[in-house]
Design a protein that fits this description.
Blueprint: E1 8-11, E2 15-18, E3 27-29, E4 33-36, E5 54-57, E6 61-62, E7 66-71, H1 80-94, E8 98-103, H2 126-136, E9 140-146, H3 154-162, E10 171-178, H4 184-195, E11 200-209, H5 225-244, H6 246-249
Parallel strand pairs: 7-8, 7-9, 9-10, 10-11
Antiparallel strand pairs: 1-2, 2-5, 3-4, 4-6
Helix pairs in contact: 1-5
């Protein structure tokens, strides 16, 4: 095998040979993510003293992405935790993300009470700083969202308003639930809102009609096959966007 300076020869899509030893490559995982290469040098046989040829084996080592499943209803008697637990379990098993379950009720956010604009990140209240750190820690979000009067629940609207930069350049999706409409109008309104926070709401979602008819005796949500299928497809697309937006997130401010 002969090659000139800087020549590159590919073999079986996982080995890259270069004469200058400075190859850089990324492997795209068709399941939805970019993978970082790991390098491993070895000599060819027979060796050619005039060339310094190294082989770089690309191993599938996906970048770790953090997903938050955010339960957006806070009222007593809500179904949100049941639906959220189902989706969080599915997302954890799916493997595209490190999954975290987040319940807005746990943060007890009052109606927005910060004197400074959220863009400044000059937070005076501890509840805001705690919420800021939680939001900033994720690369993507799935909002588990009911429908109140054709719109999103006020607890979610309030939580979105509390911070700004922490949301930027992250994709999000919605698991909506409600009556005959399955919460679609709530999710559609929320999609418009999150764009003002520089989030990317993807078209894929999960719509659950009459969720109270899908609870077992322990109030666990029992999905139909279409719910599971929709959720897996949504996660795959969410992972693609999360990877693609990673360079933009790397340049934005985190939590304070």
């Amino acid at each position: 095998m002969a090659a000139g300076d800087g020549a590159t020869i590919r073999q079986e899509h996982e080995l890259e040979f270069t004469t200058n030893g400075e190859a850089e490559a990324l492997l795209f995982d068709l399941r939805g993510g970019w993978c970082r290469p790991q390098t491993q040098a070895f000599e060819l046989t027979p060796p050619n003293p005039s060339l310094q040829i190294q082989a770089f084996k690309l191993q599938e080592t996906p970048m770790s992405l953090q997903l938050q499943t955010i339960i957006a209803s806070t009222r007593p008697g809500r179904i949100g935790p049941s639906v959220g637990d189902w989706f969080h379990t599915l997302a954890s098993a799916h493997g595209a993300f490190q999954s975290e379950r987040v319940d807005l009720a746990d943060f007890q956010l009052p109606v927005y009470d910060e004197p400074q604009h959220p863009r400044t990140q000059q937070y005076e209240h501890e509840h805001t700083r705690v919420w800021s750190r939680s939001v900033a820690s994720a690369d993507a979000y799935v909002f588990v969202i009911p429908e109140y009067n054709y719109s999103a629940p006020p607890a979610l609207i309030n939580a979105l308003d509390y911070v700004y930069a922490e949301w930027n350049y992250k994709p999000c999706a919605f698991v909506s639930y409600g009556g005959a409409s399955g919460g679609l109008r709530s999710a559609q309104m929320a999609r418009q809102m999150v764009t003002a926070l520089r989030m990317m709401p993807i078209p894929e979602g999960v719509m659950i009609q009459m969720p109270w008819n899908h609870l077992d005796d322990a109030r666990r949500f029992v999905p139909e096959p279409m719910h599971d299928d929709s959720a897996r497809g949504m996660l795959e697309e969410l992972a693609r966007w999360a990877h693609a937006l990673q360079p933009m997130r790397d340049t934005t401010a985190g939590a304070l």
